[in-house]
Write a structure and sequence with these properties.
This protein is an alpha+beta fold and 143 residues long. It is built from two helices and three strands; from the N terminus they run ααβββ. The protein has a domain of 98 residues. It has a three-stranded antiparallel sheet with strand order 1-2-3, with helices on one face. A hairpin with a 2-residue loop joins strand 1 and strand 2. The N and C termini lie far apart (105 Å).
Amino acid sequence: MKQWHSSFQWQRGVSLLEVLIAVLVLGIGLLGVAALQANSVRNTQGAYERTIAVVMVDSIIESIRSNPNAAPGAYALNECAASGGGLIGEQLTHWVGRLQQELGDEVNCSISFADGLYVIEVQWQDTRQSVIADSAIRTAVML
């Protein structure tokens, strides 16, 4: 006598529903990876801008140190508005131009001098973040 088995026992392959669920799970995973990649690119750009700001602050500090004969406070600068002529005026104009080129026209910078201490501050907007944030680097140098 022949024995009858249920149709589920003899089923082979994968049903369409199982395939759809597998594709859905894979799609959700790939969306998560894409979101992580986008976040990584944003953070990398922010780190690049901070690095540029630090390098630019270091470059103006080296310019100040390389000119020991300059009058005290000769490198003072308000709101990224370089004024004056001569070597110091050219250095400040070039420095401000590079800041604006690298960090955008919205950059704000200042160099103040008091009691033999230069304070250099650079501020810019990090527009790549989900919320527009102000970023700043502030360095003090005693000469």
